[in-house]
Write a structure and sequence with these properties.
The chain has about 220 residues and is of the alpha/beta class. It has nine helices and eight strands. A hairpin with a 4-residue loop joins strand 3 and strand 4. The structure holds cytidine-5'-diphosphate.
Length: about 220
Amino acid sequence: MRERVVAIDGPAGSGKTTTAREVARRLGFIHLDSGALYRAITLAALDAGLLPEQETRVVALAAQLPIRWVRTERGFRPEVAGADVSEAIRETRVTARVSAYAARPAIRDWVNDQLRAAAADVETGVVVEGRDIGTVVFPHAGLKVFLTASAEARAARRLAQEGKERDPTSVRRQTVELTRRDEADANRDVAPLRAPPDAHVIDTTDLSFDEQVSRVVELARQAFA
Ligand code: CDP
């Protein structure tokens, strides 16, 4: 039987998180946001004054605090030393540095272990989103999707999501931030952002949210029938 994993990869702001959450809800699967774990370990490292190159110490810190995945009704949320960090991980200081920490192999191994352990605990199936889910973390996923959209569309969506103005200057600034992170994620040596060869590539620039969710759900129903 095919592994009951839907792997959703794609660049920043391509709609992975909202899509993955809704796809999981419609399928009765559990949602795993790998980026949230990269953000949680980055937050902990920044607060402890540890640099990305001190990756072994960062991972030791993650075990010691600990950084844990806590099961919620439909997914998992990260906790650092017993505190819910769902909001803190979205702070600009974390967003600006997360790609540097995510480029370190020891940190990637730690996140991958957490993802696989969480998925192994779920009986129904999981929707896992990230940059390397279909290529590295779950290469045998029953369905692989790669979401793309133009940089401007992604920037506008991210601003809307954060409740910010979408004037041309803000969109331009946000486009620069997303593009800078995409380049860092696509050009790193370990597990770079890339569409898996066997993925369904969906360009969401001109799709409504409902259309993009429905396409993935339809593909999943075929894959897991
Ligand atoms: O939601 P957003 O697109 O802003 O990013 P995210 O999914 O929260 O991921 C934040 C960062 O974590 C990315 O820019 C990558 O540097 C890293 N990441 C990764 O390297 N591999 C993953 N599977 C997921 C995230």
